[in-house]
């Protein structure tokens, strides 16, 4: 493996975050998706990160935040740390909210978040980023799968209004007329719906809220915040916690990144968007939706505006983009080389290629080119 470093020193790749399962700090909100990384087809490719340029990177690099990207990080860090053994990456998979708090307290080199920094969070970041501020670097895309566990039902279609009513407890039984209308010929049981949501502040929750707010305005009248807004339902910690509950509980439904559904063989809902056919949650279908995103940030801040109302054939609308939050200027001298080397690798072609096999979607090339330029300018 150490031989890989020679190749890495010749490369000038760009990237984002990652983390070794052996180095992940566990917390009450951490997501231990057992077997997801090691069983993924991409896991084998990350063992040889020939594209990682280590440069002067060394020492310990702490990071934390989004649990949505945890499985991508597991894959990335295997390759990066094999190529750059002088760096120890330690990513605490908790939540977007906790990651941003840690970043703005100056305790981590970068943070992961499933939604861009708010204006007040940018203001807070200026206290840590001397002469600069926190910027949003889109690094991981993917579908938010609606996972369900309903014995005897192998295929399920829902639309935005029905999802909204399920998650705000207005639809309480699986044989409700609205669900039946979307699933002709499917024998739906007379069974209570047990809906699970995230217990902590979560960018995944916020992105689901943006989708429902944009497509089911009459039934979902909550602001798209990281805190779960609707009455009823049951809470679980992290994407792994929600997925574990759905896996175990017959009659359940919840939301989490596709990688969790794939790793645990959880059935996922197809979404009726008004396209010619209901759309399945896949990396390819999510990429079709993310490709239409517009850059909403300015300068090196690359916050994106997603179109949750798409009706394009094959475009899965419930998507998220996970950002790495870093200082554009004023990074700590001791960790800046490691931050840049790591982000350079994950944004590289090699780093992005591992995403599809793990249930994620690579960032579109046009946007990723700008991400790479922004990383190169970090100081």
- Looking at the overall shape, the CATH architecture of the largest domain is 3-Layer(aba) Sandwich
Mean pLDDT: 87
Under CATH, the topology of the largest domain can be stated as D-Maltodextrin-Binding Protein, domain 2
Tally of distinct domains: 2
Unreliably modeled segments: 1-48
What composes the largest sheet? 9 strands, mixed
Supply Rg: 20 Å
- Tell me the distance between the termini: 30 Å
Text of the CATH class of the largest domain: Alpha Beta
The count of DSSP E runs of length 2 or more, i.e. the number of strands, is 13
- The fraction of residues assigned to DSSP E strands is 15-25%
> Which overall shape is indicated by the principal axes computed on the Cα atoms?
elongated
What series of H and E elements makes up the topology? Answer: HEHEHEHEEHHEHEHEHEEHEEEHHH
Structural class: alpha/beta
Task: Output the number of helix runs.
Answer: 13
CATH superfamily of the largest domain: Periplasmic binding protein-like II
Helix content: 25-40%
Domain PBP: 56-350
Pfam family, one: PBP_like_2
Protein name: Phosphate-binding protein
GO molecular function, one term: phosphate ion binding
Short description:
Helices cover 32% and strands 18% of the residues. It is α/β, with parallel strands linked by helices and 379 residues long.
